[in-house]
Specification:
- The protein has about 625 residues and is an alpha+beta fold.
- The longest helix has 28 residues.
- A six-stranded antiparallel sheet has the order 2-3-1-9-8-10, covered by helices on one side.
- The protein is about 45% helix and about 15% strand.
- Helix 2 crosses helix 3.
Length: about 625
């Protein structure tokens, strides 16, 4: 796991001194070593976190003939398979690194042939000095980040936005990104909060010629892959394949020359990964979690149950939320743009705990998107139940629910019931879209944003939703979440919080063979009645304590609503004061004051909306106002 950056100039030269400042801002991604290459208009830089081939893996790496130059971030999990294939063709290797396999794989197969074979999480830049071309690549599902901006004179890229900020000509807010953030609570690719700065989409690469020609290619398309495969007709066969695929994926992601552990929340996904690690490991597994004094947010006992079951070396750190508040600015600021998933805070702390013992962790991410783990996937089920009630009863329930106050005892249930009532009767896309909007719904954003700032975001999501060609409406929802929620939220959260602690995170569920197998399974294999992730429980239930299978999903929450009425009350008031809001010219003060009043009176719980506003205002003051 590392950080990469580069500048490609078409009419002037690039020097080491141009690249080094970019890489210096990525030091936490790669504290172990640094390296630079500059020749003509091409400048490449690298910060290294040593995971594999500790002695000879420094970068940039050159091919034996010196014609290929590579800077590489991530891991190629099947590099040994590709290496063996190449060795059979007479290719010789000087190191044991996956980085050299990328170089030799490119030389032998070409860029498309290499990427067709590659399985892993990576972003890299490869310069072919003979062809005078640079290839800039992001992995199939977007585990590793890559930001860029370009104009007629140059193309500049880096692993994180912070590396590019000093080079951005003008920090203008992108209105599409602004609306996506206040809808979703994050900004998915290809957008960033700035105009003219973008994220390279998952499964894509740039081909850049030194004469200024820039072409973007899509090398991985899940739709195309599924057309080549047959859907599952046997639940038993699906279970057998899933068990083999996930076990093999865990094995490959445990390959490292440094200690490896796992994040263990106590939920079914991380529990399965930890149990499989214990099965295949030759020594005691390291597991890590955080605990909270507030019972409604604490899953530490669940994690300890699994850790004891697999006899793991388990480390848990209990957090005091009053102390956590002091570190919020540093945590949310590390994302470089507004990022409203508050579970980044506990994610940071569990990464911090793990980084004291290991350099690599496996996580349970992506199981929800593949196997139907989110509550929103039951939206249709509950909506039909509600609509089947007599009209007078529907009205009565809605009246009572809207009158009940929000507090720590009622909040969770009220929020779920209100969503069912609001979205019942909608078509599947509208319902799924509204469940995705963890911040402000469309009509709420119209009230929040000034007319010159508002844009519809529905078409951005709809394009992804309807681009899935092979399945029903529920499967279109899974596909949308894989491409939007996972790439824009879950993977970003884990990558940034782990990299802030110089820790590498690997995601066994996010193997293309598993993704494709999951999308070849009927929905009823995944969700049976109200039973979510059914096939996971049936396949791996034998590894887990029985009571684990019945745990209700909690999520990785923090008491934002409590903070806004206590520790963060004054700061929130200052950030949202009418004068500051009017000077920005982005928001309508009346609506902000309304949701603030409703939240504090208990009329509604607007913690998600207020957290998004809090995060945005902190970012705006720091990056735009330079406060």
């Amino acid at each position: 796991m590392c950080g990469i950056a580069g500048i490609i100039r078409f009419f002037s030269e690039t020097t080491h001194s141009d690249i080094k400042p970019l890489c210096d801002r990525l030091s936490q991604r790669g504290p172990d070593a640094e390296g630079y290459f500059a020749e003509g208009g091409v400048g490449l830089g690298h910060r290294r976190l040593s995971i594999i081939d500790l002695e000879t893996g420094d970068q940039p790496m050159f091919s034996n003939d010196g014609n290929i130059v590579l800077v590489y971030n991530g891991e190629m999990y099947n590099f040994l398979d590709i290496r063996t294939e190449l060795e059979k063709e007479g290719v010789l290797f000087a190191t044991h690194s996956d980085t050299e396999v990328v170089i030799e794989g490119y030389k032998y197969y070409g860029i498309e042939g290499l990427l067709k074979r590659a399985e892993g999480m990576f972003a890299f830049a490869l310069y072919d000095r003979v062809l005078k071309e640079v290839f800039i690549v992001r992995d199939k599902f977007g585990e590793k980040p890559l930001y860029y901006f370009k104009n007629s004179n140059e193309f500049v890229f880096a692993s994180e936005l912070k590396a590019l900020e000093d080079l951005i000509p003008e920090k203008k807010i992108n209105h599409t990104a602004l609306n996506l953030f206040f809808s979703l609570s994050y900004i998915p690719a290809p957008y960033t909060i700035y105009d003219d700065v973008y994220k390279l989409e998952a499964g894509h690469y740039f081909e850049i010629s030194l004469d200024g020609k820039i072409v973007k290619h899509k090398y991985y398309n899940l739709n195309d892959q599924l057309k080549k495969q047959k859907p599952y007709r046997s639940f038993e066969q699906a279970c057998n394949d899933l068990e083999k695929l996930l076990t093999e994926s865990v094995k490959k992601r445990m390959i490292a020359d440094v200690p490896v552990g796992s994040f263990l929340s106590g939920g079914i996904d991380s529990s399965i990964i930890s149990c499989l690690m214990a099965q295949v490991a030759e020594q005691q597994v390291n597991t890590f979690s955080v605990g909270f004094h507030e019972k409604e947010y604490d899953e530490s006992k669940r994690a300890e149950l699994i850790a004891g079951h697999i006899r793991a070396k388990h480390k848990v750190e209990y957090l005091n939320y009053h102390d956590v508040v002091d570190h919020i600015d540093d945590i949310i600021g590390h994302f470089d743009e507004p990022f409203g998933d508050s579970s980044a805070i506990p994610s940071y702390y569990v990464a911090k705990v793990a980084a004291k013992e290991v350099k690599v962790v496996l996580t349970g991410d992506c199981a929800d998107e593949l196997f139907g783990g989110y509550e929103k996937y039951l939206g249709n089920y509950y909506g039909r139940k509600f609509k089947s009630l007599p009209a007078f009863l529907q009205k009565g329930i809605a009246f009572v629910v809207n009158k009940l106050p929000h507090n720590r005892y009622t909040n969770s249930l009220l929020r779920r019931v209100k969503k069912v009532i609001q979205h019942s009767g909608q078509n599947h896309f509208d319902m799924h879209y509204n469940y995705m909007c963890l911040g402000f719904k469309d009509d709420e954003r119209k009230q929040l944003l000034e007319k010159n700032s508002y844009q519809s975001t529905k078409d951005v999501i709809k394009e992804i939703y309807y681009s899935f060609e092979n399945g029903n409406e529920m499967e279109k929802g899974f596909f949308t979440d894989l491409n939007i929620v996972l790439e824009g939220d879950m993977l970003v959260k884990v990558d940034r919080m782990c990299m802030k602690n110089s820790l590498e995170a690997r995601v066994p569920f996010l193997d293309s063979a598993i993704v494709e197998a999951a999308f070849n399974m009927p929905v009823e294999y995944k969700i049976k009645g109200r039973n979510k992730k059914y096939i996971l429980k049936k396949t791996f239930g034998k590894l887990l304590p029985t009571k684990t299978l019945n745990f209700r999903k909690k999520g990785f929450g923090v008491p934002v609503d409590y903070w806004f009425n206590n520790e963060l009350k004054q700061e929130l008031n200052e950030l949202l004061n009418e004068e500051a809001i009017k000077n920005q010219g982005i928001f309508k003060t009346e609506y902000i004051q309304k949701i603030l009043t409703d939240h504090r009176s208990g009329k509604a719980n607007h913690k998600g909306k207020l957290w998004n506003l809090f995060v945005f205002q902190k970012w705006y003051n720091h990056k735009i106002n330079n406060i």
